[in-house]
Amino acid sequence: MDFDVCIIGAGLAGSEAALQLAERGVRVLVAEARPYLMGPVHKTGLCAELVCSNSLKSLREDSAAGMLKHELDALGSHLYCTALDHRVAAGGALAVDRTAFSQAVTDQLESSELIGLVRKEACSVDGEGTVTFADGTHAGPFSAIVVATGPLTSDSLASWLSGLTGTESLSFYDAAAPIVLSETLDREKLFSQSRYEEGEGDYLNAPLSCEEYDAFIDALVHAKRALSKDFEHSELFQACQPIEEVARAGHDAPRFGTMKPVGLVDPATGKRPWAALQLRAEDTHCQSYNLVGCQTNLTFPEQKRVFRMIPGLEHAEFARYGVMHRNTFLDAPRVMDRTQRIAEFPTPLFLAGQVSGTEGYCEAIRSGLQAALEVFACVKGIPTPQLPKHTAYGALLAYATCTDTKDYQPMHVNFGIMEPLDPPVRNKGLRKQAYAERGREALDSYLGALSERGLLP
User: Do the beta carbons of residue 424 and residue 442 sit within 8 Å?
Assistant: First the structure.
């Protein structure tokens, strides 16, 4: 069979994209390196393997995760439907039998008359749309390519991506600091100020007394750490060292580093604090804040316990916990546009999954679905309507492609990256409902535009 499109990677994003395109009559070749080239976290050669938790998070429509699932349902996601078919009891969350789920997705791909599943490692794509495999064979040329290789992209393909986008645009080993929701911070204990500047500045500062700092550091160095592989430490930059490792090297090391109080004056005392943690806004609306310099390898429960010891963060809710692992992803704000395309490549080249800067199972599925819509429109020569930023994935895509975003890390959907409500809603429960209702209205409009242009099956 001659194929129209090649999808590299049969994870959650790649599998969803392939099934969506086949449903629209597009012939798709899917290249998956497993089981011949296994990643350190993979256990099988099945497509859409869940390598971590078996939970796809909350189903509540007034949660960000629930909003995303509503979008998947409304857009006809194949993997979301499969997840529901293989659901296991998990309260208000959607959890699945991971083996049955992955086997069912694999069966769908293998049984489709329009999908060819080849078990080979793709190494590169040339400007004419021809894919080269590790065994020296070739496929194509294709009308469009989707790279959906996930966080453990093979070294050869990662090298090709690095050459295509620039070495500085591709991360191999990284660490991320936690992000907390703005509305859960105690502003009575925090103050706005940039170092050496008078008045309010761009950072929120959490001042710590000597006693508070000592207690925090003691808890930090004795907290339980997540398990890590050797490769996660062998090629780390100094700036990526976990804060607990810095503190382990010297009790006062953080106070002379990321938590240094120099250039700051606590307005409550008129003096420089003993130490200070700075929080930097993650978005233009200051809906969420990054704990500056707090890259960490602590377990999620320990992060919640330890970082809530910092004044002003006692009730902080985490939009994202800190992580430290091998993590191949492109600097999306610099290389990807709102259609998930790398614009400079001669053959239409799209990204999906975590390599494109999304984090989370459903986010990967949704990115694959969106890539399929964009590829189908591209192949047919039909302009796509822009995904509204008030939808859950629209907000994530706007965040991931905003050139103002610095030091980009993969993000999952959360209310912290969504545009604030106008007018604001003070009640937390009502605010979540308002976000969900606004998202549904935006999604309905988007679905109508897709239907008018013949982009729905």
Answer: no
Q: Which residue has the tokens 């600097």?
A: 331
Strands 349-351 and 275-281: unpaired
Q: Write down the pLDDT at residue 167.
A: 60
User: CA angle, corner 44, sides to 43 and 46, nearest 5?
Assistant: 140
What are the residues whose beta carbons fall under 8 Å from the beta carbon of 168, sequence distance 6 or more?
331
For residue 166, give both structure tokens.
């620039």
Same domain, 129 and 243: no
Residue 96 has pLDDT above 50, yes or no: yes
Q: Which long-range contacts (CB under 8 A, 24 or more apart) does 261-268 make?
A: 261/207, 262/195, 263/194, 263/195, 263/196, 263/197, 264/193, 264/195, 264/205, 264/207, 265/193, 266/191, 266/205, 266/207, 267/191, 268/191, 268/207
Mean pLDDT of 216-232: 78
Q: Give the CATH number for residue 83.
A: 3.50.50.60
Q: Are residues 207 and 258 in the same domain?
A: yes
Among the listed residues 394, 397, 400, the one whose alpha carbon sits nearest the alpha carbon of residue 435? 394
Q: How many angstroms separate the CA atoms of 36 and 120, rounded?
A: 8
Q: Let me know whether 209 and 265 are in one domain.
A: yes
| pTM reported for the whole predicted model | 0.78
Question: Token pair 């989707």 is at which residue?
Answer: 146
Question: Mean pLDDT across the chain, nearest whole number?
Answer: 89
Q: What is the pLDDT of residue 230?
A: 42
Number of structural domains in the chain: 2
Out of 321, 351, 374, a domain closes at 321
Question: In whole angstroms, what is the distance from residue 314 CA to residue 308 CA?
Answer: 4
Cβ proximity of 318 and 64 under 8 Å: no
Note down the domain range covering 221: 178-321
What type of residue is 396?
Answer: L
C-alpha span between 258 and 372 (Å, rounded): 42
DSSP calls for 342-390: -TTSSS-EEE-SGGGTB-SHHHHHHHHHHHHHHHHHHHHT-PPPPPPTT
Task: Count CB-CB contacts under 10 A for residue 402.
Answer: 16
- Which letter does DSSP use for residue 213 in this model? H
Stretch 416-427: mean pLDDT: 92
Q: Please check whether residues 24 and 165 belong to one and the same domain.
A: yes
Report the C-alpha gap between 362 and 364 in whole angstroms. Answer: 5
- Out of 157-171, 228-242, 353-367, give the one with best mean pLDDT: 353-367
Same structural domain, 146 and 258: no
> Quick one: pLDDT at residue 199?
63
pLDDT at 55 over 70: yes
Q: Is the model's pLDDT at 370 over the cut of 70? A: yes
C-beta atoms surrounding 149 within 10 Å: 30
Q: Using the predicted structure, report yes or no on whether residue 235 has a pLDDT greater than 50.
A: no
SS3 category, 139: strand
